[in-house]
Amino acid sequence: MTHPSIDVLLSETRNFPPSEDFKAKANSRDASVYETAARDPEKFWEKWAKELKWDNPWKTTLDWKPPHAQWFKEGKLNACVNCVDRHVLDEKGGEHARSKKKALIWEGEPGDTRTLTYGDLYREVNRFANVLKKIGLQKGDRVAVYMPMTPEAVIACLACARLGLVHSVVFGGFSAESLRDRINDAEARALITADFGWRRGKRIELKKAADEALQGTASIEKVIVYRRDEKEPVCTMKSGRDLWWHEEMQKAAEFTAPVSCHAEDMLFTLYTSGTTGKPKGIVHTTGGYLTGVYATTKWVFDMRDEDVYWCTADIGWITGHSYVIYGPLSNGATVFIYEGSPDWPEKDRFWRLIEKYKVTIFYTAPTAIRAFMKWGTDWVKRCDLSSLRLLGSVGEPINPEAWIWYQEQIGGSRCPVVDTWWQTETGAIMVTPLPGLTTTKPGSATRAFPGIAAEILNEEGQIVKAGGGFMAITKPWPSMLRTIFNDDARYQQTYWSKWQGRFYFAGDGAHRDEEGYFWFMGRVDDVMNVAGHRIGTMEVESALVDHPSVAEAAVVGKPHDIKGQALVAFVTVKEGVATSAALAEVLKQHAAKKIGAIAKPDDIIFTADLPKTRSGKIMRRLLRDIAEGKALGDTTTLADAAVVESLKQKYAGTEE
Ligand code: WT7
């Protein structure tokens, strides 16, 4: 674990109770809900599920055969209908008042803009679903999505949901090879992509990467290509395989009937990094997932009709799935989406957008907040941020200093801050303040959402009431992952083996204070968190070893002021290969090319040997200590203790 110590966290002692004004209007105002939900979580969740639109009711709220849960299992519904149709058509088939309400407000990085009402979104999604249907896709088929942040990325996912197709979104920053691996694992039949997207004034050539990926994907039959800008020169299209989005849309029928899905039908799979092997396809199903994201959006973000909500996550991550698409749209909210990065063309881009669109709810990651802090408050002060009424944080632990800065400088000391802990696997927010109820403490994600049984457990699986241990969820919850795509054994092993199938092991270390508040301390496994993005040590190691000069590699995370963690790679080269700064650079680029920019190590340390235990296991803790420049711990199990000394000296030489 690399993280601030609990003493540092607790040294910030200010508390922030909700203001009287916020409390009076909040969607969640009754503190007794924690107790009633804990007493009967199924009843609590059932009440939320009933707020969705179902085609058929369920009989069994929860069928729990550890570690497999089925929620609302006889029920049938469609996720797209819940996010779109329901706001456009009333119960009798007439026009719903929300049909003219803005669903998506979009701004591209170069400044192009578009607004879609719920009515517009309905028309686009229906047409695009028809495009997907016409190419022969059927319920249960997987569809890969590799898109820039545009309304079409959202439309693509919702159109899949409308037909019961399983979307598998791959972040546009991932490499061709990462895309290929994910397509192959999911055996996707179609790919939805774009010719390019914008990032810091540069074109990200998505179609080019897709073409490279598709050289090794037997399952892909059709590729639909969205044209990002009609004025820009186009990409190459492969005849018989590639179709232009805009051409197919012109030919498509206006209406496509939604497919009624079982609550436990797969809604999507999303790949995420683990301790071992390649990224795994986390499986989320329809009824429980939608219930979880709907409920948490309403209560955690206090979502109401007049809000303009902005979650800065890309839809390539779970935050984009749950809190750009399914949570807010099932609530009928107005969602703002932005394509580019916060420092383009200037470092005030986000604040200008908040001012321009009068954003009321803003949800971002600590890594961004720390960058904003570094850039200075002048960028912020120039803009009118008075529309904001609530701020959220997600993705990694937020240090108290960043929390306070966010609350004061962005929130004008007026907005509650919700630090939300959850994971790709949990589907929805698990630990969070409720803004009208919870007194917040900077650096703490506070309490479990009502109906969520979150605990800290020790090695033996006993509850730690106050103190440190492993984060665990002790009862099933509706939006939990159901399995790993095509690998249920890995699902059981990764999440349920630590305590013999009794509790869900999250992989995080956490601390609980005397009041029961949770303080997250970072991962306890070989998963790293770089700028809020999850990456496994093994993945980066495999990418490095793939280079012809490399014999062996070990990757660890070291603390980083802005990114939270940065990657440090210890590399031994093959016989006869000369090490140099140039080779280090080549290896960094190699990792970025193989996986994506997030996998690029900050430092490469060449070493003649890696410290190993007598049984041959790489001593990562030791490497972490060296990377952090800490005093060395116990090295008695080290086969060749001299290795450590030489490693330490080498590392000292590379520090700025
Ligand atoms: C890991 C999950 C689901 C949000 C995006 C990341 C870390 C996430 C917090 C938080 C401390 C956090 C954990 C977790 N994490 N939110 N508020 N405080 N840590 O999803 O890629 O699945 O990563 O992100 O370590 O296990 P993810």
Structure summary:
With 656 residues, the protein is of the alpha/beta class. 32% of the residues lie in helices and 22% in strands.
What does this structure look like?
The protein is α/β, with parallel strands linked by helices and about 650 residues long. Helices cover about 30% and strands about 20% of the residues. The strands form nine sheets. Strands 5-4-17-16-18-19-20 form a seven-stranded mixed sheet, with helices on both faces. Strands 7-6-8-11-12 form a five-stranded parallel sheet, sandwiched between helices. Strands 21-22-24-25 form a four-stranded antiparallel sheet. It is globular, with a radius of gyration of 24 Å. The two termini are about 25 Å apart. The model has no long low-confidence stretch (mean pLDDT about 95). The structure holds 5'-O-[(S)-butoxy(hydroxy)phosphoryl]adenosine. 5'-O-[(S)-butoxy(hydroxy)phosphoryl]adenosine binds next to helix 12, strand 20, strand 24 and strand 25. The site of 5'-O-[(S)-butoxy(hydroxy)phosphoryl]adenosine has 21 residues, from helix 12, strand 20, strand 24 and strand 25.
